[in-house]
């Protein structure tokens, strides 16, 4: 359990609760949920430019990372097609993947197909079901994709000033503005209560909030004096109680709750807001193809990790269809901006390609 790990190392309850957010981030789980300790460790593994467990901002925003990957691929001869939706994986008479068919009917032939779409989209929507083992299909259908995340992107006309560390007279970013700011994390019991409300179909009345201000480090993201604020919030159920829809009223009601919480820590925040974009779990699924809105393509619980991700006997990136590989967050070792699943899948695919 996460609580046992944190109790062994720390005494301060606010510090323990702040660390606990990385144990439940993106997960419909409480700090008291068995296995939550692993999710914390998952988020501090690895390194950034030699700093173990470090995180960082991408200069130019996260889109710049995608562009860097695209440029590296293009330099090696890759052809990149955007706005070209895939209809299904093309299979030969021998059952091998032979390419993909686009929605406009175009066939793109290849000896191997790698998919970084979720396992649900890859195997339940893009692959002919008759070519997959029934037990495999059932396993993919049963993957827990519940998501508690609502992402809110905010534009503000001034830097938030927190009661605990007020802004300097010149309004320049202070050290805490350049880090991850955790709100409503005075105790793990607050996180557990927020989780409990969501399990009953209600957005948390005091949600867990992780607030980042990337423009404090990368001024080019916003006009002079203005800033962009990224809010990663939990817990919001994918399906609301009573089957109520996540309509504009529900979206704005939850966002108002989040902003009220921030206002208590940083008076004047609500008055500084000049625009906001609210992405609930259904929005994340519709826009980004995340099943259930889950940012990891599936829960990072112990029954869905290692040799069981995405399914037992299929954790090695190969799928039941020869020549079709899974290389996204739904594969081992799971989610996070690290590229481990893609690198490992590429190595496996290269091994098979050399044999062809």
Automatic annotation (TrEMBL):
Entry GO CC: mitochondrial matrix
Broad class of the protein's primary localization: mitochondrion
Alphabetized InterPro entries for the sequence: Amino_oxidase, FAD/NAD-bd_sf
Entry's Gene Ontology molecular function annotations: oxidoreductase activity
UniProt KW keywords: FAD, Flavoprotein
Entry's family note: Belongs to the carotenoid/retinoid oxidoreductase family.
Subunit field text: Interacts with COX5B; this interaction may contribute to localize PYROXD2 to the inner face of the inner mitochondrial membrane.
Protein name as it appears in the record: Pyridine nucleotide-disulfide oxidoreductase domain-containing protein 2
Species annotation: Ibidorhyncha struthersii
Organism ancestry: Eukaryota, Metazoa, Chordata, Craniata, Vertebrata
Gene of this entry: Pyroxd2
């Amino acid at each position: 359990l996460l609580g046992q790990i944190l109790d062994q190392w720390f005494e301060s309850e606010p510090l323990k609760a702040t660390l606990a957010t990385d144990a439940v981030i993106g997960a419909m789980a409480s700090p008291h949920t068995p296995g939550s300790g692993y999710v914390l460790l998952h988020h501090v593994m690895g390194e950034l430019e030699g700093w173990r467990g470090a995180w960082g901002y991408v200069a130019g925003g996260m889109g710049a990372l995608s562009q860097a990957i695209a440029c590296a691929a293009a330099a090696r001869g890759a052809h990149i097609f955007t706005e070209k939706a895939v209809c299904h994986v093309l299979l030969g008479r021998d059952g091998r993947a032979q390419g993909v068919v686009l929605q406009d009917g175009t066939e793109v032939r290849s000896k191997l197909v790698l998919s970084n779409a979720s396992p649900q989209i890859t195997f339940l929507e893009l692959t002919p079901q008759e070519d997959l083992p029934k037990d495999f299909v059932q396993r993919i259908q049963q993957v827990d994709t519940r998501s508690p995340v609502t992402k809110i992107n905010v534009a503000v006309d001034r830097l938030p000033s927190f009661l605990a560390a007020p802004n300097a007279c010149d309004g320049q970013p202070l050290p805490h503005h350049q880090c991850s700011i955790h709100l409503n994390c005075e105790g793990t019991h607050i996180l557990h209560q927020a989780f409990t409300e969501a399990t009953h179909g209600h957005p948390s009345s005091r949600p867990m909030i992780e607030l980042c201000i990337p423009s404090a480090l990368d001024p080019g993201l916003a006009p002079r004096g203005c800033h962009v604020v990224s809010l990663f919030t939990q817990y919001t159920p994918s399906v609301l109680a009573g089957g109520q829809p996540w309509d504009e009223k529900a979206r704005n009601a939850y966002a108002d709750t989040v902003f009220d919480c921030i206002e208590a820590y940083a008076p004047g925040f609500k008055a500084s807001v000049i625009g906001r974009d609210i992405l609930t779990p259904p929005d994340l699924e519709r826009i980004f193809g995340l099943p259930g809105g889950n940012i990891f393509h599936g829960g990072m619980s112990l029954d869905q990790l290692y040799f069981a991700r995405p399914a037992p006997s299929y954790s090695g990136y190969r799928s039941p269809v020869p020549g079709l590989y899974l290389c996204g967050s739904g594969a081992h070792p799971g989610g996070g901006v690290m590229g481990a699943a893609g690198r490992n899948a590429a190595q496996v695919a290269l091994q098979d390609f050399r044999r062809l």
